Amino acid sequence: MIAKKLYYTDCHLAGRKYYDADEVWEKLKVGTLLHLEWDSSNTHDDNAVAVFYIDPDVTGDDGRYMLGYLPCSHNEVVAALLKMGWTQVMECRISKLDADAHPEAQVRLTLRIKRNGAREK
């Protein structure tokens, strides 16, 4: 049997204290699905990948909360895929939350590569 997802990496959420995590902290749980987007306007890192929580209870952009970024040490391949239009290839979920840790270590992420829906014959 072929797996539906392949483990890629784990990392902490970077820049968490500068964005919207506090606004949705109570909604974040281990296993929460997050959304990744290449931040083409980021002047500090051409490979910046922003991490968003999309609130299912709120419609439109009001339900989009930027939590931070993938750290530079983990963003190059993900950014390349996103730049090429492979927006659905990666799955990002929260794997650990620790409100008492340093802000840069409060949210741990797990990234997996999702299986292509097209099957070979």
From TrEMBL:
Boundaries of every HIRAN domain copy: 6-115
Gene3D superfamilies registered for this protein in UniProt: 3.30.70.2330
Source organism (scientific name): Sodaliphilus pleomorphus
The protein's name: HIRAN domain-containing protein
Keywords, in A-Z order: Hydrolase, Metal-binding
InterPro entries: HIRAN (IPR014905)
GO molecular function: hydrolase activity, acting on acid anhydrides, in phosphorus-containing anhydrides; nucleic acid binding; zinc ion binding
One Pfam assignment: HIRAN
Lineage: Bacteria, Pseudomonadati, Bacteroidota, Bacteroidia, Bacteroidales
